[in-house]
Amino acid sequence: xxxxxxxxxxxxxxxxxxxxxxxxxxxxxxxxxxxxxxxxxxxxxxxxxxxxxxxxxxxxxxxxxxxxxxxxxxxxxxxxxxxxxxxxxxxxxxxxxxxxxxxxxxxxxxxxxxxxxxxxxxxxxxxxxxxxxxxxxxxxxxxxxxxxxxxxxxxxxxxxxxxxxxxxxxxxxxxxxxxxxxxxxxxxxxxxxxxxxxxxxxxxxxxxxxxxxxxxxxxxxxxxxxxxxxxxxxxxxxxxxxxxxxxxxxxxxxxxxxxxxxxxxxxxxxxxxxxxxxxxxxxxxxxxxxxxxxxxxxxxxxxxxxxxxxxxxxxxxxxxxxxxxxxxxxxxxxxxxxxxxxxxxxxxxx
Length: 350
Ligand code: NAP
Fold this sequence. Notes:
Blueprint: E1 2-8, H1 12-23, E2 29-31, H2 37-42, E3 55-56, H3 67-74, E4 91-92, H4 93-106, E5 110-112, E6 116-120, E7 126-130, E8 135-143, E9 147-149, H5 155-159, E10 165-166, H6 169-172, E11 182-186, H7 190-199, E12 205-209, H8 219-226, E13 231-234, E14 237-245, E15 249-257, E16 264-268, E17 271-274, E18 278-280, E19 312-314, H9 326-346
Parallel strand pairs: 1-2, 1-8, 2-5, 8-19, 10-17, 11-12, 11-17, 12-13
Antiparallel strand pairs: 3-4, 6-7, 7-8, 9-18, 14-15, 15-16
Bound molecules: NADP nicotinamide-adenine-dinucleotide phosphate (NAP).
NADP nicotinamide-adenine-dinucleotide phosphate binds at residues 152, 187-192, 194, 211-212, 216, 275-277, 321.
């Protein structure tokens, strides 16, 4: 059997694409990713980056309220257990993703909890191979595999993820644990400048820890950060270890000079924000689709989700190194669904 549309990925773009294609009666099949140790370590488990965050305060439609009751009524009980109750708050990242997943299921989306490890883009229908070795054929494919935040790879970063270690100031910066406290941002690019400047709204002080003596960031962003009285830069410095304990999470960071490891310093902080770039999840495509210089999939027509291969569409962060928000990912997932639907119709394959 040849599927009309296969969607690879299970973040907001994947589920938005599933909801739209299901409602268009294209009977989408979603590969949501495999639950493996490798995916856990890379940050690519099912439900994507949002499943790794806490509160989501900027996704429209979820003001603070009694979320627990709503979740009890709308999500399958078998998937409800692991989510924390959130009464009095807005929605959390995992809850938002479960809600989107359930919405896609409600319209008949089929889900396979496996990774796609290969897509043969050279002929139609496309042939997709899963991690468990199964083959699937599809007339159209929506790639919605997202991107993963880069971390330095220190064990201590891993220990305190969701307890003070984050890679998204916009997502997490306003949480109570970061308010009126000293924080640190790692990196020297535009993201680091933007995150540090954003965090000064909440923090008592923000350290930028950068490995060189000049920023990579654009002049205007760097100047804005440097002019901010709450920001202090630790130049030529790298992180040695994130410090903390079980009770409080992150309590500090130990840095060292790049040229002299004996020159160490401990900074008291409650939040550690990695801003050293993202990596789009495109390995399984093995270079068959056009990418930009940073490896993100390219939309070959402005305002369309077409990739360089006809019948393959890209949505969400895998094709976005700029906005990277849940709401923009969901929006482009909708666009990819409509593009796929119209393309299938134009080929008489709907
Ligand atoms: P980026 O420009 O690649 O910068 C990454 C930074 O992290 C660099 O300063 C780099 O140091 C540092 N870094 C990388 N690996 C490291 C490691 N292992 N240890 C220590 N430091 C490390 O990434 P980005 O800042 O996320 O920006 C990505 C793109 O989005 C850029 O094109 C940027 O202009 C754009 N962006 C734009 C805006 C805006 O205009 N509002 C906001 C955010 C991002 P080195 O400098 O030494 O290499």
